[in-house]
Design goal:
about 5% strand; single chain; Pectate Lyase C-like; about 220 residues
């Protein structure tokens, strides 16, 4: 007769083996850290809390995707289409987003610390309470974007289009607005300590420093 004293430890050892879930695949793109999926079609994908850190998704389409709390830290996202995507509470720290299109995207409470958004489009995007400290937004198009209460400390906004942008209550300490267009923007209650506005268009800007208006 077979002894249970040998069977029980074997069953316990078998059950203790961790089960590793297979990476989700969409349009031949594996959803995992470090994946290489340039020009992938992920439009409308449902990927909340997905980990795509260090991934290369350059020129991919993620328009309308649910990326709530997803991780894109140090990812290559140049020219990615994020139009109307939900990136609320997502992490894009040190991500490369040059030329990316984030028009109408939800980036509420997202983290873009030291991200490269040079030449990116964020028109109508909601970045309320987002962290963009140390990010580069040189020549970015941000018309009518919402950045209420956002952290933009030491952000480079040289030549950026900020017409009609809501920056009320934002932390703008040390931010660079040289040559930026702030026509009709709202900076009410923003912290402007050591922020610079040389050559910026401040026409109709609420809360902008009058002494730094273009001469």
């Amino acid at each position: 007769m077979f002894s249970m004293r040998f069977l029980v430890p074997t069953l316990i050892a078998f059950c203790a083996v961790p089960v590793v879930a297979a990476a989700q695949t969409i349009d031949r793109c594996q959803i995992r850290p470090g994946t290489h999926c340039t020009s992938a079609n992920l439009r409308g994908a449902t990927l909340p809390k997905a980990d795509l850190s260090r991934a290369d998704l350059s020129r991919s389409n993620l328009g309308g995707a649910d990326l709530t709390e997803a991780r894109f830290d140090r990812a290559r996202l140049q020219r990615v289409d994020f139009q109307r995507a939900n990136l609320s509470r997502a992490s894009l720290d040190r991500a490369g987003l040059r030329g990316a299109n984030l028009s109408g995207a939800n980036l509420v409470r997202a983290s873009l610390n030291a991200a490269d958004l040079q030449g990116a489009t964020l028109e109508g995007a909601d970045l309320s309470d987002a962290n963009l400290s140390g990010a580069s937004l040189r020549y970015a198009r941000m018309g009518s974007a919402k950045l209420r209460g956002a952290n933009l400390e030491l952000v480079d906004l040289f030549g950026a289009d900020l017409r009609g942008t809501d920056l009320s209550g934002a932390d703008l300490r040390g931010a660079r607005f040289e040559k930026a267009n702030l026509e009709g923007a709202n900076l009410t209650g923003a912290n402007l300590e050591k922020a610079t506005f040389r050559g910026a268009n401040l026409r109709g800007c609420t809360g902008c420093p009058a002494l730094d208006a273009p001469r």
